[in-house]
Amino acid sequence: MKSITFTNIMLRIILTIVGVLVVSILLYPVVYAFLMSIMGREGIFLTSLNQLATYGIDPWRYLEVIRDPEFVKSLTTSIIVALLTILVSVLVITPAAYGFSRFRFWGRDSLLYVYLIMSQVGGGFGIMATVALYIFLLRLNAMGVPVLGNMFILPVIYSSGLVPFMTWLLKTYFDSLPKELDEAAFMDGASWSTIVFRVILPASRSALIIITLFSFMSAWGEFILANFLGVSTLAQYIFYTAFGARGLELPARFAANAILFAIPTIVIYVVAQRYIGEAMRMGAVRG
Amino acid sequence: MPSRKTRAEILYPRRVAYTLVLASIALYLFFSIWPILFSIGIAFTDANDVKIAPNPKLVESINNAIACATMLRDNTSYMQVAIGVVRRVDSLLGSINQSLADIYKMTASGVSPSSLEYQLAASDLYNKASQLPSILSDFEKAFNCTQLGYPTDKTVVSSDVESNLTRLMELSSYLPTLQDPGRILNLTSMGLSIVSSSISYFRSIETDYKGYFNSVISSLEADKSNVELHFIGLSNFQKLFTDPRFIYSLYKTLLFVATSVPLKVSVGVLLAFLYSTPLVYGRRVWRGLLLTPWALPLLLSGMMWKYIFYPSGPMGLALHLDINNNEWHAFLVYNLFEMWLAYPFIMTVTMGALSGVSKDLIEASYIDGASVWFRMRRITLPLISRPLVLATILTTGASLQAFMVPLLINGGGPTETITVPFLGSATGNANEFLLLFGYDRVTIDKQYGYAAATYVVVVLIILAYVALWFYYSRRGGRGW
């Protein structure tokens, strides 16, 4: 560093002011969301800070939202769907990733290659795949499989979407675990399911946490398919109502809804940055 | 090496491997791969909300009606009965026609509705018309396919016939009670037109019985083809490339790439430079805060951007933006929103590259008295350009596939007349980017075959883009 001169100090002050200004401009939508959600009057858009003084502040709106039966119902659905997604992903993907890691079998390498490509393609393909899936599900529904409005189909579909990415993630983890671990268990006469779920999985705790977090996030935030199928998860509820006429009638109410909806995502982002960073280091990032 | 192989096979037998991976592969194939293949197939069909899942009951009902009409056409004994009924209807209608004409003439020449003459004629008409129900039931017996043993909700005779005859009955029970000559004239002339159209309809059955049923069968076949899925070859693709909405969507998407990519890359790079200078106090905190768009779910950010830029929202009012009616205002908001969503990525990548610029090099350049500009051009830029180009390529892909941004801000609106040179015009959403175009064809039009064809083309466009960047990144490996 050079010596501190007058110009240097001036430059520092100016740049810091600019920096703070830029941050506040870029974070304006977030602050706006919060202020809107506690504004005293429900039916209008917040357009100036004076309105906060005029109409007062109403933090109890959050309590109202939590007591709203529609919110509670869709929240329950969301939680069930997310938990089931975690369960199905762990139960189905873990053994498979273990299989890919330890075993050599016909089709292994090409499958891994397909998974790699599919886990790297971006969100646009995801939307198109969702629309394709919807067309397929309509046909399935007509054939007598109750798909539309069935919330138990969602976890299975979400887990299916997680297969390529998660298999790679877990496989990489298992690769780094010493083979001696499972070989010893095998010699002791343990069955394969015991080895996978009792020996390997506990030994790869952070992998388990990652799979849980990703499964939760994908189930929690997804709303296009849920909306297609008419399953009212919290995300679908917000998308369907808040982005329609009702959202414009009660913007403050739905801002509160959306903030409550965002809390788990934000918490996971903050708490799990370490794990997500780990996942990214393993080169398994989505575009 | 036999010994090693044996060891691996004993410890990790294939049979176990297949049991371990089978469930996940089945899950993935059934819910991810197969739907995609299925929908590619659908792209070559005329699937819509009816045809995607033909209602078996409806198809059976139409099939029965066709069988019924065929039997009525070909079975001579049925034909005799049917023609007999038609003749009876015909002759009854003929005499009703006569009575109506009499009443009309009478009233027109000034005979009072309360006169005996009128009353007689009206009751004569009423008597004739009261025979209609029994004829109608005969008619139903002869032509109602369900009663003939072909359960169906389709009719092989015009469904107007029944309602016409019923109206005729009502009308003739009215006439004796009416006093106003004008109303009488009105009603009788209405009755006359019903009778004449009915007569000509029945005559057509009578004179060309086979021809009548042939036309019934062909119209039923058309009904059937409206509910059944058909392979239509490349028609969807042909329609797509002559659809002004799609061409406009392609144009808008490319325009969005051209505007949003420079915007978000330059904002991201500027932010990275600003918050990398040691001259800004507390820059670690600011950097952390700047990553907020990453931490928020899209629904919340989308909602806020929509509210802020809504015509009655704060920025909408301040900047006089009308995203509901002005396509370019909406387009501007998309660009800003996309920039906001993507700058953390560009900023992080650039900062990562900047932190790689060695301090020694910078200090050396200070000592050499290099200008800021020189330092930038010769030291900083070469170091950050390669990761930045890669990030730009990725974020270009994101703009090309923009979907959530228009969907959440205003659903890709406003709806207006879209005119494309050489292709004409159509009504559609002015900001339907490629992916949203297919989505809207599913959600709004319910044209599944067309939507699938759209996505086949979009995938090809994206693949072309991916291939292009693969090609350039290989070739440009030496120096960006």
Automatic annotation (TrEMBL), chain B:
Compartments where located: Cell membrane
Membrane topology: Multi-pass membrane protein
Protein name from the UniProt record: Sugar ABC transporter permease
Upper taxonomic lineage: Archaea, Thermoproteota, Thermoprotei, Desulfurococcales, Desulfurococcaceae
Domain ABC transmembrane type-1 stretches: 250-469
Family (UniProt): Belongs to the binding-protein-dependent transport system permease family.
Transmembrane segments: 20-44, 254-276, 288-308, 383-409, 448-472
Gene3D superfamilies in UniProt: MetI-like (1.10.3720.10)
Broad class of where this protein is predominantly found: membrane
Top-level taxonomic group: Archaea
GO cellular component, one term: plasma membrane
Keywords linked to the UniProt accession: Cell membrane, Membrane, Transmembrane, Transmembrane helix, Transport
Taxonomic source organism: Thermogladius calderae
Keyword Transmembrane: yes
GO aspect biological process, one term: transmembrane transport
